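Subject: Interface between my chains keeps coming out wrong

I've been trying for a while to get a sensible model of this assembly. When I model each chain on its own everything looks fine, but I need the whole thing in one frame so I can look at the contacts. Pasting all components below, labels as-is. Any help appreciated, I'm running out of ideas.
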Amino acid sequence: MSAAGIVDAGRQPAAAPHATQRRALLTPRRSNILLVLLGAILLPSVTYRAMPLLPSRYPLALAVATSIAVGALSLNLLVGYAGQISLGHGALLGVGAYAAGLASSGAGLPMWLALPIAALVSGLIALIIGFPALRLRGLYLAIVTVTFGFAMYNFVLQWNAFTGGSSGVSLVRRLWGKTIITSQADMLSAGLVVLVLAWLLDSNVTRSKLGRAFRAIRESEPVAGSFGVDVSRYKLLAFVLSGALAGVAGALYGFTLYLVNSETFNPPVGVDYSLLLLIIVVVGGLGSRAGAVIAAFVFSLFEFIIGDRFGSDSIIYGLVPILGSLMLMLTVARHPDGMAGMLRERRHRRRRRAAAADDGDHAMPALPSMPRPETAARPLAMERSLPVLEVESVSMRFGGLVAVDGASLRVDRGEIVGLIGPNGAGKTTLFNCISGLLRPDGGTVRFSGRDVSALSAHERAGLGLSRTFQQIGLAKDQSILENMLLAQHVLAGYGSSSALLYTAGVARSEDEMRARAVQAIAALGFGGREDVPVRLLSGGQQRIVEVACALLTDPELLMLDEPSAGMAPVMAESLADRLRDLRDSMGRTVLLIEHNVPLVLDVCDRVYVLTAGRVLAGGTPDEILAHPEVVNAYLGEAVA
Amino acid sequence: MIQGLIVGLVQGGTYGLIALGLVLCYRGSRVLNFAQAEIGTASLFIAWIVVGAWHHPYWMGALAAIVSALVIGLLFERLIVRRMETASRLTVAVATIGLFGFLVAVEAYANGPTPRYLPPPIKGLGPQIAGVYVSWTQILTYAVIAVVALGLTFFLRRTDFGLGVLASAQDATAARLVGIPQNRVSMFTWGVAAVLSALAALLIEPTITLIAPNTIGPQLFLGGLAAALLGGLTSLSGALVGGLLVGVLSAEATQLAPNGVAGVYTVVLFAIVIGVLLLRPQGLLGRPPARAESA
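Reply #2:
Try treating it as a single job with all components included. I did that and got this:
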């Protein structure tokens, strides 16, 4: 295989003009937003003024539904995107409503100031209660939030001095000066404007690196970390954003009803709001913005109409929470993707056909060499003369089992180093110690001369340590393009707050990353299939995408954990050529775990043999082949 | 002080039973069962129908409650959990939240807000210890909790099926490969958890003294949850020890709180949860949280 096989996509000039394209002031998207906002303001007020015969209760019901819809967006961001459960969202709504009440009737602030204050207070509470829970993996957020809600309802909100107990706090809808919103139709307009703004914020989350990080975390925290996502920080960010939105929703709800008290979000009859929001978000379709909003309107209007028609003490009204909970159970058991998922299903079937259309055994395509974009500076000046990786007597115990026992190895710049050994020798554990997924019990890991032993996986990824996983380290439910964008997480040169506003800088950075991703996809021969979910690809195709993703950040060191696993024989045969390309044409440094020993001996500059957690031997392939212990213990007669 | 201890140990024991059920399901199906306490609470209404409305003796009501809890647990396992074998654990947890909401809604629908009462299982004040009367009901509670804890431990550690359950909790695939029937293990954990839930509800009812939707369930669940977390979420003995600790701490806090301040124990529960997560996430007796190695 010659160097001509390398697609040096970075040299192609196609991306440049696209990235620096000047954006018009009034893009189609922006003019659409303006139209929607205008409609939200004018439609209810004008309709109900022009047609006084319309049932006058509906503006109230719609305004309540609007605040529930904001609450649903809030919980959807947390559960649907980041995959973390909160069972205390009702209480966070309550915190927002009380904050807005104290701000508007206590401090006399106008409504448009009380809403952000509510967001701030609820977001702050979310930060405080989320911090201890989200450092850990698992359902700890659900545990903390359910206990938080319980304590809020049964203690804090019963506290007469501050929160007014059962008499509650009133909310004054002051706009400015002495202007007060009196009609519910105008309140509905205000609520709709907030809903549109919340929608926009949410869509900025989903189309920036924030949403990609959240979705990756939901699928696999180790994978997200390997792409440089600070998992704990992003989970906390999701909860804080969600909490802030919940605060706004609660404040809107309170403004609509003029009052909030200890029973507002935890009514003695009917559904608790934490549960109601969860039902709405799950039934509507986890992760679907439209699903959440539509389900919120359907549920609250349905409840309102039943209550309005039959009375809230009627037998039929009592059935609503039973039906809701049943729907929640049946949805997760039968249609985990909810309503939105059922609608999406048809599109996916078409994609599956598209994916399957080219699923044959092919040789592995040339991997694209993607130089680091100039905008993304190296986080650390690399000492070119030092070894890329130095592992010194690393040990890892699991209970009584010693998985890695004082292993040391070295990888120099520009070489391919193989790591072989029988099953259970500790190869992958050692890999995990190097990449930061595991914290070893002893020993040091130095990366380009810097001791990284104390750094976490995402920090090491940020320094230029890229890895792949035995079982494919991709967000498999996401598309190829999404994974390629996720892989560039550390290159995204913008912060979280500008991502929320989707500033021009964010747009530029996203365009740039997208251009790189599209080029890489085309170079791999997946052109036209950017939107196919990764799990629909064959094992070998998934591996190609994974390795290409690992290369997108221009890493100092590429660690491949059994790249041939899951590959068809034809493709595995071409793996050797691709590995040599990595070293000879792209100048990469590679550390490789492989079961295919002939392949390792063929392409590697040096090889380490690991047995029972110890390095048995290390040296050139010839030295390894000549090592009597290695031949006896591991290679056996097949090679000897 | 002593009074708080006696009440605290009763409540703590029931929290411990709930925590045992949580740990069983968590280890058996890797699911946090948010309906763990509500299953027993719902079955209390059955006990009330048998004892309060039909005037049968207490033990028949208790038996009816235990049987109905078992039925709820097994139905949920059969209809929901088993169908979701391959689903993400997050969605199974959501399903248990659905069961919780469903049970609360059915209670509210069938019973309405009217509070119901059960007579104590044994009447009378009982002996005096350190100047404080301990009722026979409280003594019965201690006895039941001790028997259940010892019996369950014996069963899990000393019988083939019990060891199979523990093995499945460690590694379901490996357990299936050596021929441990996974469906029966799953039925067992959910069934036992439901029975534990009914026992806990029956035993805590005399100290709360009324049955109404949303009274016993949340307190029992959150006490049990804090207990399980304190014990380490995976440790059976930790669950019981955690339960007793949580019970005594909340009872003492309630005794110390000034008159008219309600719900102090909810703050104690919150503080325990936050404290454990900050200081000792693996709990008192649990193993350090494992970090997954693969993608």
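Reply #3:
Confirming on my end. The CA atoms of residues 122 and 137 of chain B lie 5 Å apart.
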